[in-house]
Amino acid sequence: LLTVYFKRYDRIDAELGKMEEALIRDLPELINKLVLLLNAGLVINTAFARIVENYQFFNGGDRQQRLNSAGNRRRYLYEELTEIEKRITQSNSSLIHELRDFSQRSGVREMIRLTAILSDNWDKGSTLAEKLEGEGELLWISRKRRAEEKGKLAETKLTFPLMVLLIVLIMVTIAPAMLEM
To answer: Using H for helix, E for strand and C for coil, what is the string for the chain?
Structure first.
């Protein structure tokens, strides 16, 4: 009973961890798209709307169908941006307010930083694109470092099975010699 009591939130915690990891993984891509659209002459609201429209076009169907399909990985960031875009069009609320609310709910440090950059430079188009480019480069470097850490962790996890196989191989090799003695 104690195990069940203490482990009751493990599945939820694992799901939150996956969501946070997916947000961090997709954030550099979002920033690159945003910089590209800002440099093309779009304003922030239109750029976000275009990103959401593009996501919906290439990932057709309703939300539950996209989330449950086995072939697609869950893109929490883009799903949340889609919901933000719906709230903006329905209630005419501010994009910055909705992004700030989402970043606070998610608790992802990189998302909070992106929202702060957007809200501080809302009216400055070219300097905003430059700041976002710098932030995007930092996030790509961070993503690369996390991938290297995961690779090292996987290598470490495979060390024990390899050691067991080596011991079995030694035993199989030495066993005939030991039986002849």
So the answer is: CHHHHHCCCHHHHHHHHHHHHHHHHHHHHHHHHHHHHHHCCCCHHHHHHHHHHHHHHHCCCCHHHHHHCCCCCCCHHHHHHHHHHHHHHHHCCCHHHHHHHHHHHHCCHHHHHHHHHHHHCCCCHHHHHHHHHHHHHHHHHHHHHHHHHHHHHHHHHHHHHHHHHHHHHHHHHHHHHHHHC
Q: For residue range 3-31, what is the model confidence (pLDDT) as tens digits?
A: 877 778 888 888 888 888 888 888 999 99
Cα–Cα distance between 50 and 111 in angstroms, integer?
Answer: 19
Q: How confident is the model at residue 70, as a pLDDT?
A: 42
CB 79 within 8 A of CB 52: no
| Res. 125: pLDDT tops 70 | no
Asked whether residue 71 carries a pLDDT value surpassing 70, the answer given is no
The CB-side HSE value for 169 (13 A sphere, CA atoms) comes to: 6
